[in-house]
Amino acid sequence: MNEWKKNLRKIKPYVPGEQSKDKDVVKLNANENPYPPSPKAIEAIKSFDAEGLKKYPPSDAAQLKTAIAKHYGVGVENVFLGNGSDDVLALAFQAFFNGGRAIAFPDITYSFYPVWCEMFKIPYRTYRLGEDFRINPEDYREENGGVVIPNPNAPTSIGEGVDFIEKILDYNRDSVVIIDEAYADFGVQSAALFVNEDKYNNLLVTGTFSKSRSLAGLRIGFALGSAELISVLEAVKNSYNSYTIDSLSIAAGTASVEDNEYFREVIDKIIKTRTRLTEALRALGFTVFDSSANFVFATHDTLNMRDMFEYLKTKKVFIRYFNLPRIDNFVRITVGTDEEIDILLREIINYTEEKI
Amino acid sequence: MNEWKKNLRKIKPYVPGEQSKDKDVVKLNANENPYPPSPKAIEAIKSFDAEGLKKYPPSDAAQLKTAIAKHYGVGVENVFLGNGSDDVLALAFQAFFNGGRAIAFPDITYSFYPVWCEMFKIPYRTYRLGEDFRINPEDYREENGGVVIPNPNAPTSIGEGVDFIEKILDYNRDSVVIIDEAYADFGVQSAALFVNEDKYNNLLVTGTFSKSRSLAGLRIGFALGSAELISVLEAVKNSYNSYTIDSLSIAAGTASVEDNEYFREVIDKIIKTRTRLTEALRALGFTVFDSSANFVFATHDTLNMRDMFEYLKTKKVFIRYFNLPRIDNFVRITVGTDEEIDILLREIINYTEEKI
């Protein structure tokens, strides 16, 4: 073996949902939004001065930061931007979790958290979700080097209220607490309301434009926190890559945030379809958690979910299956359009009829 | 002090060239290209199906990888993409430099290298440029944990030939060797020609669309290397952020690579202006290295370069000054349009006349 191969990084990466180039596929496996971005975001791209791309983006991206700050009622100095919320979280892990103590997060959650811990050599400890698959805030009273809580949690879809967040914050005055709100717009109140409170200057809230704002293709993530936390995050970002967010994303993202009416409209449609999907699955004998996200998490007492997942794939309906302890008989289904959900339900009915 | 503050990352970030929102500024401080991107790249943005931004980008970005592979005469499996070449380099440092041994690079070079070493806790050793400010390949015969050589070097602008690269590779069969070609299109032969040779499977060549392709605003970087190196880089990237490059960048970047005629035309114009700028500065008594990049590096026996840099700023002409050992009486000037260089030269003449 070549000597240099000994110095290569050995790591098991995160595996995202399958992609397909087949246009006929009903793609309900990556929690993408089935509706297009705001027409104003599309217009911002069409009318963008593309000749200006010869220059680097403004490194402060002030325009987009200002729009986000206004939307959440915080200051511009409380906003951080990144290349998708994965970039924001990866930088936050590096910025805030430098003690020797293990950081804490649930055992069933976004599977990128342990990957980042491995990548950045951060020790971690997971806490088992309750039998109802909810996070027990009392678990997070134990000493730790940081806390990461997704709200709503993924893939369970279960969201928690402001009281729950306040408990987590009160129990963890000595650690940075990250509330990952990738799916929050679909059903929970944002923890952003605590950002301007002096006593919670250890809180970082993260979000993304990939879900509720239909801009997964543009890669925009953000974080909200005290000016002190944000300045550390900026220093770490500037030690990695000074320009992570491109000029077109800044323009389109700003237009998206400023179009609140369209934003509310899309979310309302998804919530309606989610209710219909949840009820239809329950009527077919599935157990489905009450979802606060743009996906549902479902299981069945007698049907094999992995088998159903594979069956649906042959019918060009992609959903997500995780071969992991405790959830290996669950599927995660993104809330698509009503038409997509009709196709899904028809294929699930075909499947259940074949099996009975 | 709050307990959590002890775990914050303390780091001194890289400082990029100043930005200005003032449209009148002649901006020759960030090595941006003064000409717009290929009309075909602009057309790719205008005609892009922006509704499709609701989906994540194709994670393999096959279209852009294929275009780059064809341009350099390598296989698709030899191409890696990132969010600007800073992202590519940051990932490469994490992927390849995991031994305990110090990695090696020149003392005067891209100032992000030591920042990444600090960030990822990689030990490093720098080798002093010769009195002629060139890299001495014999320095890199010493045992090391990796080698990083920019060609041409920045901010010196000096490029080296294929023989030099081959020496570096032959002396370093036990380390990964990164050749950073951010500016290579302006004057050196790419080391990509060695990528497909079995004996150099430890070579990584990095590049960017921000300079020769006038797409700094879109953030596209790439690397070329053996399939084995690229696969490790992909695994590290997928442990950090699965989707670093957005759908619009993939479309515009592909169109840019496919428009080789425009690419050559822009480079030829810049080289012509570079020659004119170099000769004009020399006629004014400056010492200017022969540049292989889209900038020149200049000094003067009797004039104070820092003072001239500050003077030019008051005249709205931005160039770059580094307050660093050995180069603290140099300035780095980006090759702009002929009109921009005329303004620069006029102001430099005004300055020299004031001082004499």
Please sum up the structure shown.
Chain A is of the alpha/beta class. Chain A has helices at 39-46, 62-72, 85-96, 112-119, 162-171, 227-237, 247-258, 260-283, 305-314, 338-355, and strands at residues 26-27, 79-82, 103-106, 124-127, 147-150, 177-180, 203-208, 221-225, 286-288, 295-300, 317-318, 330-334.
Descriptive account of the structure:
Two copies of one chain form a homodimer. Chain A has 356 residues and is an alpha/beta fold. Chain A has ten helices and twelve strands. In chain A, strand 9 and strand 10 form a beta hairpin. In chain A, helix 2 runs parallel beside helix 7 and helix 3 crosses helix 6. The radius of gyration of chain A is 21 Å and the shape is globular. Chain A starts with 25 loop residues before the first strand and ends with a helix. Chains A and B meet through helix 1, helix 3, helix 4, helix 6 and helix 7 of A and helix 1, helix 3, helix 4, helix 6 and helix 7 of B.
Report the β-strand fraction of chain A as a percent range: 5-15%
Oligomer: homodimer
Biggest interchain interface, per-side counts: A-B, 88 and 89 residues
Q: Sheet with the most strands of chain A?
A: 5 strands, mixed
Helix content of chain A: 25-40%
Keywords:
homodimer, 356 residues, alpha/beta, 10 helices, globular
Topology (elements, then pairings):
The structure is a homodimer of 356-residue chains.
Chain A: E1 26-27, H1 39-46, H2 62-72, E2 79-82, H3 85-96, E3 103-106, H4 112-119, E4 124-127, E5 147-150, H5 162-171, E6 177-180, E7 203-208, E8 221-225, H6 227-237, H7 247-258, H8 260-283, E9 286-288, E10 295-300, H9 305-314, E11 317-318, E12 330-334, H10 338-355
Parallel strand pairs in A: 1-11, 3-4, 5-6, 6-7
Antiparallel strand pairs in A: 2-8, 7-8, 9-10, 10-12
Helix pairs in contact in A: 1-7, 2-7, 3-6
